[in-house]
Amino acid sequence: MTAAAEDDPIAASLARVDALEGYRLTLRSQGERGEEIIHYSYRRPGYVRMDMESPYRGAVMIYRPDSGKVQLWPFGSPGGRAGLSLRPTNRMVRSARGHRVDQSDIGTLLRNVQRLQAHGSTRRLEPVALDGQRMQHVVVETEPGRAPGEVARYELWLDDETLFPRRVASYDRRGERLERVTLENVSFDPAFSPSHFHP
Predict the structure, then answer these.
(1) Cα–Cα distance between 146 and 135 in angstroms, integer?
(2) Are 147 and 33 in contact (CB under 8 A)?
């Protein structure tokens, strides 16, 4: 582990993520409303594509920062067809927990963790193995009564080699888990086709 990661693993992880041109992964989110499974793609400076597997199998959402809109195809791949054009705040394109497509990237997640860090503490627990990979296990929690939002504690498992988050759990002020997100099949700087974000 580098000295920067020893000093502040969240800042070190964010620096690595911000240096990427893009990534592709499978996101599994478990919360009170069940499981969401999304094939997720990101490309700088903020293009996002989500191909839903569950609960709305086949639905596709693409956010383009140049338009500021989310295109939604509820019943399958775009294939040249025009989708619904919606604002990122529209309920139809927000997750069960209210997450927005335009604020769904890993950089935004880590900046949210940093906001909590500013009101509390960061602890590094013993490294663990996750799917055969060595992970740094980090807990960020706010001081009592100082949570800037609903989340009062984050637990993160960062890949020991890349510092990319592979699992993140969030908890409320009562210590109850709000959501657990697992990031699988991660690939860095993939070669996206010209039509991937521009159908």
Answers:
(1) 29
(2) no
Give per-residue pLDDT as tens, 27-62: 999 877 778 999 999 999 999 999 999 888 999 999
Question: Which of 197, 196, 190 lies closest to 25, judged by CA?
Answer: 190
Domain locations in the chain as residue ranges: 1-21+105-190
Q: For the segment 72-95, what is each residue's pLDDT rounded down to a tens digit?
A: 998 877 776 778 999 999 988 888
CA-CA-CA-CA torsion sign (73, 75, 77, 79): negative
Give the pLDDT confidence of 125-168 residue by residue, as tens digits.
999 998 889 999 999 999 887 777 789 999 999 999 999 999 99
